[in-house]
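[recover] target loaded
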């Protein structure tokens, strides 16, 4: 129950101390200059405490979005893949700069929606804008369920951006030959190997760039991925030209670095600039690095590989993501993968 105690200072000024004690909850105290304010606070706070609302509201008033994101980056991001950490930290930095000074209690869905619209105004795709929203939403969920800092997740109340149907851009054999030739001509220690590995295995860029030597099993012809996008271990067959280039790389390197493709300070090497150069030199347009993954899957489908096997190789939990390749198995037949390997082999000679 609430009690109000009047206090008078040496100068004769009065103040009113409010104490509220409810069984099973920490006591709450506040001081007011006016008795009416003290009574209003006592009534509202006591009701909120009895309904289980006060503690969360009080915490949300004290914690800013900056506080939440700082703790989330320290507690949660280290458990994700290195490249994912880098991307998500960049996304969260946008929200910290835009709304970081707001307390969690004062942050409204409308403000987050304005941030979403600013990203769209920059010309970002709906899919990319959703990537900015995802870690922010996850941070609020952690704040609600684990930290006890807020009652709800405001990100869940705003519309996500529409995402276009998945691209299906893949390289024909002649384009593959031109691209790999361009990669070989560019002076970069890893570009050719990275692109060849992507084509041969269907691995994601993040999986390739964070690949460590302990995951490469040249004896049993496989790569073991431990921290994947779907949080499941995955074994990828290693054969043909991909195995040859990794054997060559292992012989050339002293393996002082953990990463296969290490840049400065043993961080993943930056290849975006030279990748764009290779595309330009090869005369290939409307093509992204992720489309190398589509290329691998497309040739598997052309060779009659069933969708379940393709899903296992690519690391998809369901068949929904690989159904886009279904028509290729009907339109094209057996020699596609053999043709692809012949093209890859030609670049070695």
């Amino acid at each position: 129950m609430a009690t109000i105690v009047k206090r008078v200072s040496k100068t004769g000024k009065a103040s009113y101390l409010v104490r509220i004690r409810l069984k099973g909850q920490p006591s709450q105290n506040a001081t007011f200059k006016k008795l009416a304010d003290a009574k209003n606070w006592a009534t509202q706070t006591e009701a909120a405490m009895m309904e289980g609302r006060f503690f969360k509201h009080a915490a949300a008033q004290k914690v800013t979005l900056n506080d939440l994101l700082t703790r989330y980056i320290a507690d949660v991001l280290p458990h994700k893949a290195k490249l994912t950490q880098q991307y998500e930290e960049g996304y969260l930095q946008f929200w910290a700069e835009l709304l970081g000074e707001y307390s969690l209690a004062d942050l409204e869905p409308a403000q987050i929606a304005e941030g979403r619209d600013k990203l769209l105004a920059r010309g970002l795709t709906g899919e990319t804008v959703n990537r900015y929203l995802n870690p922010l939403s996850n941070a609020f969920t952690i704040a609600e369920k684990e930290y006890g800092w807020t009652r709800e997740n405001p990100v869940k109340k705003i519309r996500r951006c529409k995402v276009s149907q998945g691209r299906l851009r893949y390289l024909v054999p002649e384009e593959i030959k031109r691209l790999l030739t361009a990669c070989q001509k560019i002076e970069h220690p890893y570009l050719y190997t990275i692109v060849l590995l992507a084509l041969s295995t269907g691995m994601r860029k993040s999986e390739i760039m964070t690949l460590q030597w302990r995951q490469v099993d040249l004896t049993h012809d496989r790569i073991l991925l431990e921290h994947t996008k779907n949080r499941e271990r995955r074994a990828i067959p290693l054969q043909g030209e991909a195995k040859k280039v990794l054997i060559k790389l292992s012989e050339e390197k002293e393996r002082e670095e953990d990463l296969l493709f290490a840049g400065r300070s043993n961080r993943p090497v930056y290849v975006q600039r030279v990748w764009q150069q290779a595309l330009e030199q090869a005369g290939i347009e409307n093509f992204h690095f992720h489309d190398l993954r589509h290329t691998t899957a497309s040739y598997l489908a052309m060779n009659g590989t069933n969708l379940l096997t393709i899903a296992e190789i690519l690391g998809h939990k369901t068949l929904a993501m690989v159904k886009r390749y279904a028509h290729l198995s009907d339109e094209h037949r057996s020699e596609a993968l053999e043709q692809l390997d012949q093209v890859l082999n030609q670049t070695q000679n």
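[recover] notes: Confidence is low (pLDDT under 50) at residues 330-335.
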